[in-house]
Design brief:
Layout: H1 3-14, E1 18-20, H2 21-28, H3 32-40, E2 48-50, E3 53-57, H4 58-73
Antiparallel strand pairs: 1-3, 2-3
Helix pairs in contact: 2-3
Length: 84
């Protein structure tokens, strides 16, 4: 995790542990539309609906990010992450 990710995590943890979709996408370093598409396909981090609004718990985002990174390094495609 880079310094920017640590800064974002620290700021998020100081407030509510729940982030809306736009905040969650920023936290993960992706576009909100990408996160919405992942939700629609049944992929991506676990989310909750509070009053009809989509919310992500920061621990779920961290867990999903770690599992995704671990999957990239497991060699599922026969290549290491970063190989062309």
């Amino acid at each position: 995790m880079d310094d920017d990710a640590f800064d974002r995590a620290g700021k998020a943890r100081k407030g509510s542990p729940f982030l809306n979709a736009k905040q969650a996408a920023h936290y993960l370093g992706m576009q909100a539309k990408t996160l919405a598409n992942m939700r629609w396909r049944g992929e991506g981090p676990r989310y909750r609906r509070h009053g009809g609004r989509v919310n992500y718990h920061i621990d779920d985002l961290d867990d999903w990010s770690r599992r995704t990174l671990a999957g990239l390094h497991s060699g599922a495609s026969g290549k290491e992450a970063g190989d062309a």
